[in-house]
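Section 5.1 Outputs to date
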Amino acid sequence: MKSLIRPGDLKGSLTHQVRHKKLVSIADIPPRRPFDYKKLHDERMQSIITSVTSRRGIGELGTPDEIPPIVKKVLFGGLYPSALRMLDARYPIRIKGKTYDPDTIQKQFSKVILAVNIPEYRPIIYLRTRNKKEYLKMVPNRAGGFKFESRRTPHMAGFFLWLESVQPSLGAELTRELLDAFPAIHVPEAAAVGKP
């Protein structure tokens, strides 16, 4: 097969757009029900914060509402240093078996972002490394706290840019209320009281 392909054959290949009466550009097809994803995300984020801060709790979050279910991940925002200290005290961050304190996190990471997956309300922490263009994805572990799961790099263009645009906006109290409301982060009862 390779012997049949000559370099001259490739030079004459079409690089311009093909015009044909049966071909349609994707830009010419209007969406049936257009929507603003950022607006829906912000509405979902606000509904979660309202439910958690009004003490209605996670049970209220699972009930259907008027917000379309297209939003599967909510980015609450970056953590202020006070929220980072609270996170360390209640939900320690472990990367490759090593627990990181707030000072180490601030030295090695320029940004800490709290997010949650929907509908299971599983919290996620994204850590922006200072020396590389990447985020470390931290997920709840069985012992309580967060453990390293994977990396998010610029090749995930849209999501990476979204993470880059997030600014610090969460203090210690709201961060604690959000994390306490999400059941996936809690230490199992038997482990918490030292039972087998």
